[in-house]
Amino acid sequence: MNKIDTQINDLSNGQQLSMEENVEEKVKPFKRSLSRRSFLGKSAALGAGAIGGAWILGDRTPAYATGTLTQGDADILRFLSAAEILETDFWQQYNELGGIQDSEVPGGSGSKLYTKALSRLDSDMDQYIHDNTEDEFTHFTFINAYLVSRGAQPVNLDQFRTLPSSQATGAQQIPRLTNLMQLTVDTSYWTKYRSRSGNPDLGDTFPPAVPGLLQGQFPAIPRSDDDLRPNKHIQAIANTAAFHFAFIEQGGTSLYPSLAQRVTDVEVLRVLLSIGPTETAHFQTWHDKAGNAIPLTDPTNGLVFPDLNSPPFGGEDFQTNLIMPEPCPFLNRTFPVCSIIRPTETNGAAMGALNALTADGLFRGQSQAFFAFLTQLAQAADAAQRGC
Ligand SMILES: [Fe+2]
Ligand SMILES: [Fe+2]
Fold this sequence. Notes:
By secondary structure, the chain is mainly α. The chain has helices at 3-12, 23-33, 36-46, 53-58, 71-98, 112-119, 125-149, 189-192, 231-260, 266-290, 349-359, 368-383; strands at residues 296-297, 304-305. Helix content is 48%, strand content 1%.
């Protein structure tokens, strides 16, 4: 018997349910018979915190669902948990060097020159990095707790923490899951969200805003204090980070609605529909900040950040203040254009996300066992079907 059922039995004063009986069926009519007043009276005695707020507000709606998840729902949540653990790992690295280190997001002591270079894009960059990091931590922690509450296995990637930390002053020296020092960032999301005629779900492809970031391996955090100079080099690293922030969060923006289409349980759907849009909030923020990246050429490696507002860039596909999704074709080109998240195709969405993160260079140096485990989680999530 799970926790909510136990609490209901405690409240029922004699309406104990046998373990052999169908608990779900017995509990439903009992829930309906509880008047708001009698429920509040009993819960006050227990301590209102013992029962979730939705019960109190909605009478008939439990604060959380009961019973075992379908295999498909568990597999989707497990892949999302893994993705969130990975997000947390690299956001933590960003926060240690370029965010705000405090009791909410502890670890590291900041890199003054890296933080300063980031602040040239927006004076609040450190706060946004901090808040994004904290959000990711809560995402995986919640999903894992939710999995356990529904009788499913949580995800733990600790055995794969094998990658080195940055040697720059300010970084913790702990083993990591992800590598921010050899990224190959795909910035085609920039033109994808500005296109009025193309949608990746309809087979369209989009040019990158910063072609150079797709043609090599570049650090998004200083690898050591040697990376803090010259100024244009550390600024290029901060620019890379800004475009990487948006790349990551637009991926999460697509992943949640893509997978939500195949969940079975309405509450699992609620979990996905409630977390997913926070990824979109992150993306919108980073999309705006990346537009403030300083145009420059990194003197150490030739990486070019073009002026996106001037020829051969500029116009609707590149202009930096066009940060809201341009309307585009959706489902079928015969419909009117619509401002939407894209892609949201559900088939293969989890493997697509894993492949995109791998191509990003985030896992450079990881073990075969790591890739095998992540692939297994992604394939299981992609095999999930509504109702199974
Ligand atoms: Fe997240
Ligand atoms: Fe995220």
